Amino acid sequence: MAPKTAARRMSGIPQPTARTTRKRDEDTGPDVGEGADEWTQAKTLLKPPDQLELTEAELKQEFTRILTANNPHAPQNIVRFSFKEGTYKPISFVDQLAVHFSLVGNMIPKDSDEGRRQNYRAEMTSESSQEDMEVQPSEAEGGEGGEGGKEGEPKEAESQGEVLAAEEVAEGEAEVEVEEVITPKKPTERKLTNQFNFNERASQTFNSPLRDRECQMEPPPRATFSATANQWEIYDAYMYELEKQEKTKEMEKSKGPVAKKTGMRTRRKMTSLESQSDDITKVTQAAKIVERMVNQNTYDDIAQDFKYYEDAADEYRDQEGTLLPLWKFQYDKAKRLAVTALCWNPRYKDLFAVGHGSYDFMKQNRGMLLLYTLKNPSFPEYIFSSECGIMCLDMHVNHPYLVAVGYYDGNVAIYNLKKPQSQPSYKSSAKLGKHSEPVWQVRWQKDDMDNNLNFFSVSSDGRIVSWTLVKNELMHTDIIKLNVEGTTTEGPEELNVYTIGCGTAFDFHKQIDYLFLVGTEEGKIYKCSKTYSSQFLDTFEAHNMAVDAVTWNPYHSKVFMSCSSDWTVKIWDHTIKKPMFVYDLNSAVGDIAWAPYSSTVFAAVTTDGKAHVFDLVINKYEAICNQPVVAKKKNKITHVQFNAIHPIIIVGDDRGQVTCLKLSPNLRKMPKEKKGQEVKRGPEVEVAKLDKLLNLVREVKS
Amino acid sequence: MAEVEETLKRIQNHKGVIGTMVVNAEGIPIRTTLDNSTTVQYAGLLHQLTMKAKSTVRDIDPQNDLTFLRIRSKKHEVMVAPEVPLIPCNRKCSSPL
């Protein structure tokens, strides 16, 4: 239609209304009215170049246009996957809604929670000043809905009409509900603001931006500390405190700067020593213990024997006993030296000293002093060596670390076991009056009046000398000179020349301090007193050969015993010139010793390697034990000693070996207990026992 | 010092002794005759055991102290002697029974 109407217009006819033009669509013939324009304008049909070319028939075709509510943009062929059938299926209904504009509003209904809350907040702020009106809090109704509105309205209307409000408030009283969290009292005051003139002006300050300012220190150094609070830790702490206190007390006590200085010096020395010393030195003690442990393991059976073995066969042996060999002590370097002296330590009962030297006049060598302990049979505890053979030794009773020795060259010396040096602490010399012959015996004496240590020595040069340790020096005092009685020869100028006897043994009385016995090479025994230097109290014609040993009986104050190379052992009462008992042992007797547990038991050792034990109570004439002790036949036994508490004896031979033997029960017999009677032990009993024996003998003799 | 060395040597040469070890207060072996791994193992284990034993003994009676510790097993025996003063120091040597 369009082109036609356009064409009509272009005909130049002044444009009638659109209607009229449309009416005239069908008219194609020229009109008279229109004729005026015909000639002004040429009939030109202006077609746009892309106009659709249609036939007339097509042009007349009528198209119906319907207005629907379908959204032309909505898709019409949406398909959805149906899981049930597993295929895509077209959706039947497609949403035709087209949203042209949407705006989210911020209006909330008055009745909703949020609405009521906001209302309330508004009221709160506006009613804070006024206090007239008060809505009484009523019980909260279960339902929260619906009343907020009513509440709000009356409140708003307050400013306009109090009465109205009151009425409505009264009405709404029962229905006023409490806001959820807020206090029961509802401020109903409302600021009266002039609605028309009220101007609120607010301003906001700048909010300074918040900035965190932090400062962190270096964390303090942490260390984990843990400790246990044991009984002993507490104890140690107390002990330490105590020691510190005592030290401070001592420091205070020591007066004078000198003492303090020495104290400081010694302390400094101590610390320097400690810092210098290697860790290994702290192990000395532990090493010793372990060595002993190892030895205990190795010699386990011997140790068990020593402690527990009692020869059961003694019951059948009819009063005879045996000696069970236990340990053998020897040291490499002392192998060729004979044992010249044995001594048990008076305080430490398992420690004994062995002196090594040589009895041979021709072969004089060096000497050794060894101290062994039963706890360690394989190695000596202390070793001292000397250039000259040691002939005798003695240990001090009160100072068990002091050992006095006598040498073959006549010197005497004192060794201090506490000091680690191998040389003696004090030694005599030719200047200081040493003997000119070998020293055969030394004995410690009680401290003299000035509390100086002193000991006696006897030697072949006929002198008995008392040595005193005065201010670190050995001073000697001749006590007695052994003159052979009856041999004074008259010299040319009427001088009496005395032949000097050679002392070979001596022993001091246990109770009577000044009394002592001396045995000589001539076989005589002199009873002497310390106070009389020129004369003997008594003389005994004891033996035919040199007296090897004399010993007082430990219990009986009158009895002593002597032995000699003339194969005899004799027991004497010092008041009687003749011996009480005489025993012939078929071989030179090296040494004798009384048993410490009985007054009637004693042991003797001979050069043929045998040990003899006698018990006078059991058998007055024969030994109850007669046993070869040393392995090789040519080995001579030189010394014997009983142990003070254990039932053992040590025997030294001339090969440098010391054998330890256990006494069987028969040798240790105590007086039998009579039924019903108390068993008496102790010295008196022993003395009585011996007395009885002696009386028998005396009666016989006399 | 030489005495200690001597003693240690004697112990080592004693019949039946397999090895000896000296350990200091912290449990670090100072001297040993065994191989490294064994030494380290024994040192660590025995140190703790000895400490425990010593603690036990002293806990019962603070005036008492551990003298030595023997551990006998089927094959060997281990002997430990801690140093007597407050510086604990272990020693060990083993020997077959």
TrEMBL record, chain A:
Q: Please name the Gene3D superfamilies in this protein's record.
A: YVTN repeat-like/Quinoprotein amine dehydrogenase
* UniProt-annotated location(s): Cytoplasm, Cytoskeleton, Cilium axoneme
- Give the compositionally biased regions (Acidic residues): 168-180
- Ranges for the region named Disordered are 1-47, 107-180, 248-277
- An annotated GO cellular component: outer dynein arm
User: Which ranges does the UniProt record give for the WD repeats?
Assistant: 540-573
Predominant localisation class: cytoplasm
User: Which InterPro entries does the record associate with it?
Assistant: Dynein_IC, WD40/YVTN_repeat-like_dom_sf, WD40_repeat_dom_sf, WD40_rpt
Looking at the keywords, is Metal-binding present? Answer: no
Q: Which Pfam families match?
A: WD40
Q: Which domain of life is it from?
A: Eukaryota
Keywords (alphabetical) are: Cell projection, Cytoplasm, Cytoskeleton, Dynein, Microtubule, Motor protein, Repeat, WD repeat
The Gene Ontology biological process annotation of the record reads: determination of left/right symmetry; epithelial cilium movement involved in extracellular fluid movement; flagellated sperm motility; heart development; insulin receptor signaling pathway; outer dynein arm assembly
As one GO molecular function, the record gives:
dynein heavy chain binding
Q: Which SUPFAM superfamilies match?
A: WD40 repeat-like
Q: Does the keyword S-adenosyl-L-methionine apply?
A: no
Q: Where is the composition biased (Basic and acidic residues)?
A: 147-158
Could you describe the subunit structure of this protein? Consists of at least two heavy chains and a number of intermediate and light chains. Interacts with BICD2. Interacts with CFAP45 and CFAP52. Interacts with CFAP53.
What does this protein's UniProt record list under function?
Answer: Part of the dynein complex of respiratory cilia.
The UniProt entry's sequence similarity note says: Belongs to the dynein intermediate chain family.
Q: What is this protein called?
A: Dynein axonemal intermediate chain 1
Q: Which organism is it from?
A: Phascolarctos cinereus
From TrEMBL, chain B:
Question: What positions does the domain Roadblock/LAMTOR2 occupy?
Answer: 4-87
Q: Does the keyword Transmembrane helix apply?
A: no
GO molecular function annotation: dynein intermediate chain binding
**InterPro entries attached to this UniProt entry:** DYNLRB1/2, Roadblock/LAMTOR2_dom
Record-level GO cellular component terms: cytoplasm; cytoplasmic dynein complex; microtubule
Q: Which family does it belong to?
A: Belongs to the GAMAD family.
What is the protein name stated in its UniProt record? Dynein light chain roadblock
Gene that encodes the chain: DYNLRB2
